Amino acid sequence: MTVPLDRHCSVELQVSAERVSQLRRIVAAHLRHWSLDLHVPPVCRALDELLTNVHRHVGDGNTCVLELRWTGRHVTVSVADNSARMPRLLPAGGGLSRVMALSDSWGTCRTTDGKVVWFTRYAEAPNAAGLLPYAPLPGVRTARAVPVAVLV
Q1: 9-27 pLDDT per residue, tens
Q2: By the 8 A CB rule, do 108 and 74 touch?
């Protein structure tokens, strides 16, 4: 199976509680379209944390950009917002601790107009079945042609 080396989705939106579930469904649909069904639950849970943090700490009405990228080996999810306040990893768990647990790597980066928080997961291209069918399994008659040893 030939896999494009770079699949990408970008969504710019205004932050609100309703948008979190909508974006989760959009990301899940892209992952399923890319045959990455096993990655839907962990990616969506980690994305929930990032978007909820933006909603909670940046506030309603601010613009953020969600980017989803799959290189054929890694899925990267990033959320950029216009707040200069950098996130912190709290010792109590939740938030970025959950993102850290659900991903292979994560990080934050300041930008000229805010910050980006991102995470990656290893997601290799799924193996596709060959185009040629397998030879049929032997039927009962051909399998019984071989003498069966009798146990005494």
Answers
A1: 999 888 787 888 889 999 9
A2: no
